[in-house]
Design a protein that fits this description.
Shape: rod-shaped
Strand order of the largest sheet: 2-3-1-6-7
Helix content: 55-70%
Order of helices and strands: HHHHHHHHHEHHEEHEEEHEH
Radius of gyration: 40 Å
Largest sheet: 5 strands, mixed
Distance between the termini: 57 Å
C-alpha cells in the first residue's frame, strides 16, 4: 500500500500581490508627510518668483491630495481583506498616486536655471529625494514605481533635453542613470519583499500542517485504531472528569462493562481477520443502542465499556439488555456459516459522594461482568441483582 502523499505548499501570485499591497499602505504615512513638507518648501522658495496663481493652485491640489491620501490610508488599514477588494478602493489608490506623480512632474514649470538657479537646484534635489524615497516605498508594488518615480525624474529629464546644451545633456545623462539605478534597486527590493511574503505564507502553511498533525496524533492516541471508538486512556480521563462534575450535580453515573463471549475461540478457529471483523461489528452494534450523549470505549482486547451520564441502574439495565439482544441477533459470516456472537455484561451505578471514588464504580461493574461470565455468559448482571 502506497503511503498517502503529504500536502505540498502552493501559493497564488494574486495572494502575494494582495499582501504586498497591504505592506505598501502600512508604510504609506511617511510619504504623505514628506510630500506635504516638500510642497510647502516649494511654495516658500518660489513665492513671488513665479506665477502666484499657478503656484497657489499647485500647492492647493497637492495638499488636498495628501489629505485625501492620508484619510484613504487610515480607512485602508482598518479595512478587511474583502473590503480592500472593492473597486472604489483600487481607484482611490491609483488616483492619489497618479495625482502625486502628475503634480511633481508639473513642478518643472517652476524651473529656470538662468534666472532662479538656486531655487531650481533646490527643487531638482527635492524631486530626486522624492524619487529615491518613492523607489524604496514602491518596491512593495512595482506599478507604484511607474506612477511616481518615472513622472518625477522623467519630467526633469524632458526639461533638460529640450534645453539642448552641453550642461543639459550631462544633467540628462545623470538623471537617466539615476532613474535606471532606482528602477534596479526597486526591482531587487521587490524580489526581497516578495520572497519574504512567500516564506511567511510557507511558514504559516507548515505551522498549520504541524498543528493538524498534532491534532491527529492526539486524536489517535485517544482512539482505538480498529473500531474507531475511544480507547482505555480516553476512558480513564473521561471517568475522572465525569466523577468530579457529577459530584456537584449529585446525579448518578452508570457503567456497562461488556465482554465478547468465547472470543479467543473465534480467533483460534477463524483467524484474527475474522476476529477483527467481530470486534468492529460488535462495537457498531453497541453504538447504535446507546444515546448520543453516552460514551463507548474499547477497554482492551474483547472488552468494551459504556459510560452513561445521569442514568439510574434500572435505566442502565434496559440499555444493557438492548445491547445484548442486538449483538446476539446479528450473526456474522465465518467461513460460509452465520455464527451468533454473544456478550456478557456487568452493570453498576453510583452517585458520586465522599467516601467513594471512580475506581469503586469501575471495579463494581467489572465484578458484575465476572458474575455474568461465571453464571453461563450471554447475560446481564447488575449490582441490583446482587442485592436482591
Amino acid at each position: 500500500m502506497n503511503a498517502p502523499e503529504l500536502p505540498q505548499f502552493t501559493y497564488s501570485n494574486k495572494k502575494v500581490d494582495q499582501l504586498l499591497s497591504d505592506e505598501l499602505y502600512s508604510h504609506a504615512y511617511g510619504t504623505v508627510f514628506i510630500h506635504t513638507v516638500f510642497g510647502l518648501l516649494v511654495a516658500v522658495i518660489f513665492f513671488s518668483k513665479v506665477n502666484t496663481i499657478f503656484l497657489g493652485l499647485w500647492l492647493g491640489v497637492l495638499l488636498a491630495n495628501m489629505l485625501i491620501r492620508y484619510t484613504f490610508i487610515r480607512v485602508w488599514l482598518k479595512s478587511s481583506t474583502e473590503e480592500r477588494k472593492k473597486s472604489w478602493m483600487r481607484y482611490m489608490a491609483f488616483g492619489t498616486s497618479l495625482t502625486s506623480g502628475v503634480l511633481w512632474a508639473s513642478s518643472v514649470a517652476f524651473l529656470d536655471f538662468h534666472s532662479l538657479p538656486f531655487e531650481s537646484l533646490a527643487l531638482s534635489l527635492m524631486v530626486m529625494s522624492l524619487a529615491a524615497s518613492a523607489a524604496l516605498y514602491s518596491a512593495y508594488f512595482i506599478p507604484a514605481f511607474y506612477l511616481s518615480v518615472v513622472p518625477y525624474i522623467g519630467s526633469h529629464l524632458v526639461y533638460h533635453i529640450l534645453h539642448f546644451s552641453f550642461v543639459s545633456m550631462v544633467v540628462s545623462s545623470v538623471l537617466m542613470v539615476f532613474l535606471v539605478m532606482l528602477h534596479g534597486q526597486a526591482k531587487r527590493l521587490h524580489g526581497t519583499h516578495r520572497n519574504k511574503i512567500i516564506q511567511t505564507l510557507k511558514n504559516e502553511f507548515l505551522i498549520a500542517r504541524l498543528e493538524e498533525t498534532n491534532l491527529k496524533l492526539n486524536e489517535s492516541s485517544r482512539t482505538d485504531f480498529l473500531t474507531k471508538m475511544l480507547n482505555r486512556r480516553s476512558f480513564d480521563e473521561a471517568l475522572k472528569r465525569a466523577w468530579r462534575v457529577y459530584q456537584n450535580k449529585q446525579q448518578p453515573i452508570s457503567l456497562i462493562m461488556c465482554d465478547i463471549d468465547h472470543f479467543k475461540h473465534v480467533n483460534d478457529t477463524f483467524g484474527h481477520i475474522v476476529g477483527d471483523k467481530v470486534l468492529v461489528r460488535v462495537a457498531n452494534n453497541i453504538k447504535q443502542q446507546i444515546r448520543s450523549e453516552d460514551l463507548l470505549f474499547r477497554y482492551g482486547g474483547e472488552e468494551f465499556v459504556i459510560m452513561l451520564y445521569d442514568t439510574t441502574i434500572a435505566e442502565a439495565e434496559v440499555i444493557a439488555e438492548k445491547i445484548r439482544h442486538k449483538v446476539m441477533n446479528d450473526p456474522i459470516e465465518m467461513e460460509g456459516n452465520l455464527e451468533s456472537i454473544t456478550l456478557s455484561l456487568g452493570v453498576s451505578s453510583k452517585v458520586p459522594v465522599k467516601g467513594f471514588n471512580s475506581l469503586d464504580l469501575l471495579n463494581e461493574s467489572d465484578l458484575m461482568l465476572y458474575k455474568s461470565k461465571q453464571n453461563g455468559r450471554n447475560k446481564v448482571t447488575s449490582v441490583r441483582d446482587e442485592s436482591k
